Every structure is written in C-alpha cells, then in structure tokens.
C-alpha cells in the first residue's frame, strides 16, 4: 500500500500574504482522493520530529534559534518566511513525515511525503523557504540506525540542492545528485557529488535524454540501497521562477524515469514534493499529482 505523509499543518502556518506557496498542500491530497488515486487509508499524519533527531543533522545553536524564534531579521529574510512557533512546528512535522515515509518505503518499496524537499536548509542556517532539511534527516536516520549503508539523493527541483550538498560534503555514504537551472537561485552553488547545470529554456527532449543517461550511470556507480527523491515541479515552462521549459507530460516522464529506475534496481525510494510556482495552481497540482499517480501505477 502506498503511504503518504500529510498533515493539516503543511498548509496553514502563515499569514494570508504568504499563503500561495502553501495552498497546494491542501489541494493535492483533495484531488487524489476525489479521483480515487488514493483513499483515506493511504494518508498518515506524522508527529513533530524530536530535538534528538533534528540535531543529528542541524547544529544545536541553529536549532535553539529556531525553537525560540530568535533568528535575526536578516536570517529570517533569507528563509523567505516570517518566523513563528507554528512555522517551526510545521517543519518538525515535515521532518518526521519523511523519516516515517522511509520506514514505510522499507516495507512497501516506495512512500511519499506530500510536502518536504527542503533542500536549501544547511547545517546551520535556512534559505529559500527551507528551515530544516527533511531528506538529509531521513538519510541520517537510516545510516545512524544502520538500516542502510549507501544513500542516493536525487534532486530534480529547478534550484540546486545547496543545503543538502553542504550537509553531506564530507560524507561518502551519501551521494548527492542535483540537476538544476544553471543561472537560477541560488547564485552561489555548493558542490554536490554530481551537478548537472542546465541552460535556460531546456526542453523535454534535452532534459529527459540527460536524465536517462545519468540515471543509468548513477545506479551503476553509486550502488545505492536507498533513494530520496526531490520532485519539485518548478521545472515547468509555466513556472514563474524556473526558467526551464518542461511540459507537464515531460515532468511526468521525468518522474517515471526516477521511479522506474528505483523499481528496476530494487531500491526503496522516498519522494518529497519540492517547489512549484506556476501562476495557475492547476498546473502545480496536476504536475505533483502525476507523481503520486505514477507511484500507484508502477509499484502497486
């Protein structure tokens, strides 16, 4: 059974003028339930992650600033959100959602978090709508508990996974792969284990050809026993921030390449949603919903 982490707090921690990026977290499960792709039993509600889990990945000094809401104004501006206890709790729930999803994926080959993909969170700071790094925390959980030995993080959000790259820059048991817009945020890129920078307006054919070649190389080279996948849909041509020119069908084929690679190589996978900023919310929801539809179609 496909298990999906979702909570009401995913969509409701912010003032109205910051709500647009959050609306999708309500609409995606509503759409999937309405069309019958999932049922209520596919959803589970995670609790907030513990301080012990959070500080396996993030510096205690940074975590103390978050939990006491004492980030400076410049630090808050860098995250893009006004800091509040509700927002920090949301991040804690998302973190636990990815860890719980990893447990489900070990049993069912795949599991998903209807939020997450918070790849701009560094060891000691937040950026770009990310305060804590869920995929990094999930990877650390599996490694620290000796559940898995070699983690591959596949990051296909349009923005480089700079925080994830920084967290694992000196760790050989996690391989970070980021395929992203070369001229897009962040201005200063960190060094992933493998970076594929893309020119503006890269189309379906070019993108999918590059990804397919790299999927084959990655699974042969890394030999992962677990995958975390950041499936941001800000690669769409309609995205306000992306500058990559994928169609919705191209985005779906991208997800199919990643999911089928894991299935064919018998490697469990956790999928986190990442970004999406198209002007029409229907484009965002449809592209994300395709990821869940493919998970059901391929694995169950």
UniProtKB/TrEMBL annotation:
Keyword Hydrolase: yes
Protein name: Histone deacetylase
Classification via PANTHER family: HISTONE DEACETYLASE 12 (PTHR10625:SF19), HISTONE DEACETYLASE HDAC1-RELATED (PTHR10625)
Pfam family, one: Hist_deacetyl
Domain Histone deacetylase per the UniProt entry, residue ranges: 20-288
Source superkingdom: Bacteria
Record keywords, A-Z: Hydrolase
Organism per entry: Splendidivirga corallicola
UniProt record similarity statement: Belongs to the histone deacetylase family.
Gene3D superfamilies: Histone deacetylase domain
């Amino acid at each position: 059974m496909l298990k999906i982490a979702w909570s009401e707090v995913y969509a409701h921690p912010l003032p109205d003028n910051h709500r647009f990026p959050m609306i999708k977290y309500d609409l995606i499960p509503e759409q999937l339930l309405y069309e019958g792709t999932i049922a209520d039993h596919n959803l589970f509600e995670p609790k907030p992650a513990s301080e012990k889990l959070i500080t396996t990945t993030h510096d205690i000094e940074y975590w103390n600033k978050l939990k006491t809401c004492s980030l400076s104004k410049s630090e808050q501006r860098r995250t893009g959100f006004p800091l509040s206890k509700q927002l920090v709790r949301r991040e804690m729930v998302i973190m636990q959602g990815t860890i719980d999803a990893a447990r489900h994926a070990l049993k069912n080959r795949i599991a998903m978090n209807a939020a997450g993909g918070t790849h701009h969170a560094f060891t000691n700071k937040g950026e770009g709508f990310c305060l804590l790094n869920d995929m990094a925390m999930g990877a650390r959980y599996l490694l620290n508990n000796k559940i898995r030995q070699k983690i591959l993080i596949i990051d296909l959000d349009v923005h480089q996974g700079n925080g994830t790259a920084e967290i694992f820059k000196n760790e050989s048991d996690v391989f970070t792969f980021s395929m992203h817009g070369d001229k897009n945020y962040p201005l200063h890129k960190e060094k992933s284990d493998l970076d594929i920078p893309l020119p503006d307006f890269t189309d379906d054919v070019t993108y999918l050809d590059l990804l397919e070649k790299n999927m084959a190389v990655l699974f042969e080279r890394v030999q992962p026993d677990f995958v975390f996948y950041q499936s941001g849909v800000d690669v769409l041509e309609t995205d306000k921030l992306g500058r990559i020119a994928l169609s919705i069908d191209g985005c779906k084929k991208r997800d199919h390449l990643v999911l089928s690679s894991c299935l064919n190589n018998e490697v469990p996978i956790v999928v986190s949603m990442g970004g999406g900023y198209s002007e029409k919310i229907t484009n965002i929801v449809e592209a994300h919903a395709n990821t869940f539809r493919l998970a059901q179609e391929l694995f169950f």
